[in-house]
Amino acid sequence: MRINFGILLMAAGAILAFAVRDGSGPVDLSVVGIVIMLGGAAGLWFSYRVANQREQEEITLIKPGIEEQYDTTPHEYVIEEQIDVTPVEYQPGHSPEQA
Predict the structure, then answer these.
(1) SS3 state of residue 15
(2) DSSP H or E segment with residue 42
(3) Per-residue pLDDT of the chain (99 residues; tens, 9 = 90+)
(4) How many CA atoms lie within 13 A of 37 on its CB side?
């Protein structure tokens, strides 16, 4: 069952269930419409599952031999002098009138 046929079944079932009001007869068309809608929904679900069925395979982006060449441990940098990044206005001994 394709997706289009499932949508067609759901539409036909909805028309029978909600639009047709015929109570004369041994068959209740509302129930038939709901059953057809459920069949269409099951067909949609089944066709979706079949269309999206893939094997989950492991994908290796980088070959292990090449990956070993790269060192991912962070380097330790030694800071020899500290840099003062405090704005001039907020440094001790500076007044706003000097600016």
Answers:
(1) helix
(2) helix 29-51
(3) 578 889 999 999 999 999 988 777 788 888 999 999 999 999 999 888 887 776 656 666 777 777 667 767 777 777 788 777 777 777 777 666 655
(4) 13
* CB contact at 8 A, 89 and 99: yes
* Residue the block writes with tokens 């706003």: 96
CA distance 70 to 3: 48
b or e along 55-83 (b: 16 or more beta carbons within 10 Å of the residue's beta carbon)? Answer: eeeeeeeeeeeeeeeeeeeeeeeeeeeee
Cβ neighbours of 87 (radius 10 Å): 8
Q: Which residues contact 38 (CB under 8 A, 6 or more apart)?
A: 13
Amino acid, res. 20: V
